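Recall from the previous lesson that a structure prediction takes nothing but the amino acid sequence as input. Here we apply that procedure to DUF445 family protein from Nocardioides immobilis. The sequence below is the only information supplied.
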Amino acid sequence: MDAVLQFFEDWASGKLTGTHGVDWFAFISIPFFTGTIGWLINWSGLWMLFSPVRFYGFKVPGLREVATVIPRKLQEVPGIPFGRVGWQGIVPARAAKMGSIAVDKVIAKLGTPAEFYAQLEPDEIAAHIVSVFEPDLPDIVDQVMMSEHPKLWRDLPAPVKAGVIARVQAQLPGVVTTITDEIGVHIDQLLDPKIMVIDHFRKNPDLVVRVFKDVGQRELNMMVLFGFIFGFLLGIPVAIVDQTWHIWWLLPLLGVIVGWVTNALGMWLIFEPPEPKRILGIKMQGLFLRRQDECAEVYAGIIADDVITLERIGDFLMDGPRGDRTRQMIATAMRPAIDKAAGPLRGAARVVVGAEKFDNIRESFAMEAVGRTITPFRDPVFSKRQSEKIKVLIARRTKELPPRDFVEMMRSAIKEDEWMLYAHGAIMGAAGGIIHLGLFNWGWIPGFPP
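The prediction returns the following tokens.
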């Protein structure tokens, strides 16, 4: 024990290094300085992760051509591949990628399109379509008949017109049920969740930011706090090294290491290890993984309310890349309604207006009804009610995910870009070392200890 005390006494006095001894003010200040820099590194790192949502910067002539030959990692910096200098948050810049990963690693495991559709209770959707569609039916029949055969329609007695409309209305529930059943049978071909999610995330990068912040805000706040703790602890050996050798470039160099390690430790603490492990006798698990059930509820709410909604399913079915097939399927299901509405008069009607004209009337009615049939999907109140069912499904399946798959849901999209955060930490760490030198060695501030 005496030998150890003698060693520290000789070190503090400078006998071991041939210096004038330890500058205790500078020594004590270093951990607090590195702790503050660590806090700033993680705080600004989170800003870089999420902000700005849209790219801000300017175009540099010739940069786009240069970008093709620079190291691949630098090509990943937002804006560089397009010849622009500026910044966009890493998460919103990778919005489409996160959408793809969310489908491949999470949503695809939660259920097929058919399962999602079944969860929405097609019978209830059919009943809602009928309730919304039925009041408009007389106008649709009148509009189609006036367009295709106005003289015949005007000459028909009112009771006959009412009879035609009544027959069509009588067919409506059965026809709509056929349509919702057909959608269910072919939903795997009509609905592509991957395209739907990627497209929505790409158009709404702020939603991706919200996913991260709402699901993991507690862990993100802790990451900033741990920036100070890690920076302070790492600052102790830095102070010892600095006061042992008194070489001016050591502080900036060690600052690079401290900045890099501070960010890396913060990310590790949140996401690793995915499964509980004992390290030095202490049970360890990523902070994010410890409350998987709670996070699953938040994540499910966002997906059900904003991504896979009945409104968006309806939009995709009608206006997505397979919308033509949906429209044709609905029209095919609607055509028999005209035949059944004509009933025993069908043959006479074909003779009076002509077979071709009759078929045109039937086709026009079917096509007019297509858009109106899917309109109830876009009813926000009804969609909100149905989204609760999707939320229950997603939450249940997300809670059942293995921890490693669960953490990939959040981290995979940004993992290959984490080096930017670490590099940012290293640069700030070096800058912190230079600032400390300026204050304590070069006397940048008059009256401050040189």
